[in-house]
Structures are given as structure tokens and as C-alpha cells.
Write a structure and sequence with these properties.
Length: 246
Amino acid sequence: MIERQFSQDRLAALYDVFYPPARRDDFAFYLPLVMSARSVLDVGCGTGALLHLARDAGHPGRLCGLDPAAGMLNRARQRPDIEWVHGDLSSADWDREFDLVVMTGHAFQELVEDAEIRAALAAIRSALNDGGRFAFETRNPLVRAWEQWATQYTAEVTDAAGTIVRCDYRVEEPIEGDVVRSVSTFTSPGWDHPEVSRGSLRFVAADALSSFLAGAGLAIEAQFGDWPRTPLTDTSPEIITIARKG
């Protein structure tokens, strides 16, 4: 168990090195939404970077991050003036407590089964105040982004201690339906073994996404195809959605 936690902490420490918050286009989109809401729940908050930015920018209200990864939350909890909850939406029981719920970093795509999506949306609707909004993104399956990931996500970085870490990213073939499975292998000269992270992401089509939201009582208020808020088209890389609780 100690070794497993060490691995979680090591990978969590690398997350913001590989994906620096200051260079994340999604944060530029979500931060104004967070700042305009009195109470915010970040589902799949990871290292808590978005909520850290909001508090640094002067958000005076309630900020809460939810994540199932203990290693990520260990990083997030370095900021004690934000509420951090270890778990996921299946264990959440908030009732009309938040004006805004966000899911960033394509966390929505980690909901692979229909039942998972429906249960998550039901929990989000329950957590929202009347008229509250849910903002999230999922990649447009028509663009087939996974075909570029081996090149896009294979990289080397230097961590805070000056250590070089390499990530080799591989998509598992064959692709089954709308679920893409991947393996990230992290190596470094000073490590005695690689760290391996596996993931499964579902690519939900726009019409299916609309159906899931409607079934949960969440009405689409706006949709965009990229972070500069370009209208959604078949060639858009993202399906960025803001939905309101009816």
C-alpha cells in the first residue's frame, strides 16, 4: 500500500509539469465561469489547479474539489482554504449546494458506461441549486483525436527537482466502439522502475450527449467547438457544453 501511494504521489506531482496550468486553454474558458458563481464544485479536480487559480484571483465563496485519486488530492490540499473531498459522484450526496459544477481536463470522458453517465448527471443535477449550471467538455468523436495522441502526448519534461521524466503514450488497438483505451509509461534515469498509468475514455457524439443531458433534466444553454467559443461543427475538436438545471 505504501508503494502504491508513492506511485500515485509521484504521478500526481508530474501532472502539472506535463500540463502546466498557465498554458491550459480550458482554464482560460472555465475561470471566468468559476469567478462569477458563488459556490463551485469541480468534479475530477485533480491537483486542484483551477480552484487554486480562482482563490488566487479573489473568489470569496465556496470552492469544493472532488477527486477519486488520493495522490492528486494530496497536491490539491496544499491549499487549505478550499474544500477537498476524496471520492466520486457515486458517493456524493450534495443537495442544491452549488451554483456551478465543472468537469475539466476531459474528465467527463472517463464515464464509460451509459449507467455511469446517467448516475453522474443525476448527482450533478442534485448538487446544483435551482437554475445552476454544469460546464464541461468532451472531445468530438468525428475528429478522431486519438489517432494523434502517440505523438501529441509522448514527451520529456524536467520536474521541480531537475529530474528528466519521459512519458511514452500508446493507444491500445483495436478501438472498441466509442471507447479508447491507452497506456502512459513514465520513465526517468533515477527511478528503479517505470510508472504506468492506464485510462479509458468514451467519445460521446453530440446527439447522444444531448439525449443524456435532457434525460437528467439539464437543458443545454450553450455549446462551443473550441476554447475561443467558436460554434460547434462536425470538424470542431471539442464539444464544450454549458447546461442549466431546469
